[in-house]
Give the backbone structure.
Amino acid sequence: MNKDDHVEQALRRVTPRGAGPGLRERVLAAIGRELSADPLARWERRLGLAVAASIALGIVLNVWAVRTDRQCQARLYGPPPIPRQIADLAETVASVTDAETGQRLERQLAAIWRSRKAELPYPPIDYSQFLREFEVVRKEPRHENLLEEGTETNRDRRRRGDRDTSDCQRRLGLEDRLTA
Amino acid sequence: MDRLAERLARGDQAAFAELYDACADRLHHYLAVRLASRDDADDVLQETFVRLARNRKRLSGVDNLVAYVFTIGRNEAARLAARKSRRRESRVAPGSQALFRETAGDDAQAREAAELVAAALDRLEAEQREVVELKIYAGLTFREIAEVTGLPQGTVATRYRTAIGRLRGWLARELS
C-alpha cells in the first residue's frame, strides 16, 4: 500500500452528509410538476414574451429614431422658424421699450404659436359612432334586396340616400369642402 | 443504466426517483462544497433534476447518466454563483459540521478526524479540491471527471495526484 492510498483512506473514512431527508420529496414533487406541464404552453408563453419584447424594442427604436432625426434637423437648420408677424411685433415692442422685453415677448408668442400649431386642426373622429351607423345600415333588409339589382342603381340610391351624411362630413371636417 | 435512460426519456417518474436515489447524496455534497452553502445546494439539486425532466428527450442518447447529472449540476451551480457574484453576495466556506456526518456524532476520535479532513481539504485550491471531491466522495472515475469538468483526462489525473501529495504533506505535519 503506497502513501497515496493512506491519504485516500483517511479521506474516505469520513462520510458526506448528503441531501437532507425532506429534499427528496421536494425534488420529486418538482419533477412531477415538470413532467405533467404542457410543453406547448411553455412554448406559447415564450413566443408571447418574444413578441412582446419585439414590440417594445420596436417602440423604443422608433422613439430613438424620431428623436435622433429631430436633433439632427435642429443641428442642421437651427430652431424652427416663427411667423413674420411675431418677429415684427417683437421688433416694434423692442423699439419702444428695450431689446430684452422685445425678446421675451417674442419667446412667449412663439411658444403660444407652437402650442397652437401642435393642436389637431380638427376634433378627433369618434369611430365608435361610425361603427354604430354601419351596423344599422347592415341590418336594414332593404340593402340586402338592393344587391339583386344593378350596381349602378345601388350607388344612385345610396347617393340620394335617406340618410343624412352631413354628420359624417362634419366629423371629418369636410362639410365646407364637399358641400361647396 | 441504458434502460433507465430510456425510461427517463419517456417521462417515467419512478425512473427519476431511481436516478435521484443513485446520485443525489453525492451530488448534494459536491454542490455544498462548490457553493459553500447547503441551502444553495438544495436549490441547485432541485433545479438540476427539474432541468433533466424538462429536457428528458435528450436523456435517451446519454452514455453515462451519472456524469451527465453532475455536468448539469455543475452548470447550474456556476449559474447560481455568477448570479450571486453579480449581487456581490459573499461566500463563506462551510465548516466540517455542514459536510461530514461524523462531526455530529458522539465518537470524539471520528469527529476529530472529520474536522482534520475538512481543514485539509480547505487548504487545497478550488480546482484541485473539485477533482478530489469528485473522485473520493462522488466516486467518479478520471474519465467521468474529465467529462464533467471539460478537462483532458491527463490534466484531471495530474491535478488529483498533486492534490493528494499536498494533503499527504499537510496531514503528516498535523498528525506528527
